[in-house]
Amino acid sequence: MNKEILKLAIPNIISNISVPLLSTVDTALMGHESSLHLASVGIAAMVFNLIYWNFGFLRMGTTGLSAQAYGQNDNTKLTNTLVRALFLSLIISFLLIIFQTPIIKIVAYFMNIDQNYYLLVVQYFEIRIFAAPATLSLYVLFGWFFGLQNAIIPLIITLFVNIINIVLSYYFVKELNLGIQGVAYGTVIAQYGGVFLAFILLFRYKNRLQSIKKEDILNKNSLMKFLNINKDIFIRTIALTFAFAFFYAQNAKEGEMALAITVILFQFLSWISFGIDGFAYAAESLVGKYFGARDRKKLYQAIRYSFYWGFLLAVFYAFVYYFAGEWILKLYTNKNDLIEATKPYLFWTIMMGFAGFVAFVWDGVFIGLTASKEMRDSVLISLVIFIAVFYILQPFGSLHLYWFSFLLFLFVRGVLQSWIFYRKIKKKFELFS
Question: What global pTM score does this model have?
Fold first, then answer.
């Protein structure tokens, strides 16, 4: 089982870590311009996280359904899952482009985007929004490849996208002096290059792809199952991204320096979450496969060993941040005032992995089981507790207490998911062989 997990997890970890590497380059490019540019690219990236994370169900739902179809060796279901998800991704993408103006205004209002960097954020947004069809199509294609137990193709595509993005962003910013617009152009071009490569690599599975039949795609029962799973994941992700946006917005009220500190610390968290998510993605694929094949023994093994590896990676991150946190901080910015202001908060980066790894891995397990309703409920309850604790601690006016409340949010999610699994979900496969 360890071999199966690592076969999926290692490519996923490399692929996932390349994502914060990309945002690290963007942050570094802007951080060497000014703290205003750094805060602007951080908040602009958060705007797209707020938007795109809400549609993460396109990947997660596709992974769970396609993994179960793979375990059942049902190629028709595999094909229909892919087509339904791609069609839905295009509808959502075009709606985002059409309604881009009200979207950015609403997000700017609720995230308390200061006028000092509002124009920079809008410049970034108006360019990058046109990458939506490519970005959301990649979510679907990655989920489908993961369902077929293939993490290599998503790795190839991700590295391809990020290399193009880094090279173009650097060129546009440093050579053409396009500033934050250059970073946005680099992302758009790279995303379309990635989706083009993904469709080329899709032909590797032409034997799995069946003829598309309209009546199968629009089958009421299958379509409703697909939409219900995605609906619950959508609500769950809205709650999750709201927590991040809420935290950003509250820190923005504390001023430009507090927001810049938050942007940098979330980069540390990104490295952790994307790393541990490598094992969560492995859990999605394996749990879905063995749940579809009704193999209880291997299903339990996949869950148990995924947690072992997630914990080990959390320990690794804590070790790295403890000994090299200040050095990593200096990669993000050369502004001495920002470095000195951020150093007291590096302690929280050490605790992030321990607070979040249980929730990250459970997410993968729940997706593989298509237990989207239970995953949704755990996030909603955790969000209520997080906001309540935040407002209780807010009068003390300490960023340390803000970060305590956020890490408590991650920890409570993991506790609730553990309780839900052992009290409710486990019964689903007790009768398996």
Answer: 0.76
